[in-house]
Amino acid sequence: MVLQGETIYRGAPDECEDCGTKLELQVLSTCGYYVGTQCQCGPFSRETGYYATREEAEQVLNGIALGERENLR
After folding, report:
1. Closest C-alpha among 55, 60, 62 to residue 73
2. Spans of all domains in the chain
3. What does the alpha-carbon distance between residue 20 and residue 17 come to, in Å, rounded to a whole number?
4. Predicted TM-score (pTM) of this structure
5. For residue 20, what are the contacts with CB-CB under 8 A and spacing of at least 6?
6. Which pLDDT score, from 0 to 100, does residue 35 have?
7. How many angstroms separate the CA atoms of 59 and 39, rounded?
8. 22-42 exposure pattern, b = at least 16 Cβ within 10 A, e = fewer
9. DSSP letters along 14-37, please?
10. pLDDT at 71 over 70
11. pLDDT tens-place string over residues 10-48
């Protein structure tokens, strides 16, 4: 369950409060690929679940840009 304000989609700031960087959705990777945000301070948010390939996560990111939100947390 995602709390209100925990992700950008749920009301988190779209700018890092520490460094002032505008946070843009992008494909990131740790133990899989996901759509999230990061700045010079490090990872900021994870907006989706994990995907096995970068291509899957990029498809989700492209869908988000088109207004499809069903894959957001």
Report:
1. 60
2. 8-65
3. 6
4. 0.80
5. none
6. 93
7. 22
8. ebebebbeeeebbbbbbbeee
9. SB-TTT-PBP--EEEESSSEEEEE
10. no
11. 888 889 989 999 999 999 998 899 999 999 998 888 889
| Amino acid in position 1 | M
Q: How far is residue 22's CA from residue 37's CA, in Å, rounded to a whole number?
A: 9
CB-based burial label for 66 (10 Å; 0-12, 13-18, 19+)? exposed
Residue 57 — pLDDT band, cuts 50, 70, 90? very high
Whose tokens are 């988000």? That residue is: 64
Q: How far is CA 53 from the centre of its chain?
A: 16
What is the predicted pLDDT for the residue at 68?
64
Whole-number Cα distances in Å, 13 to 21, 52, 56: 11, 28, 26
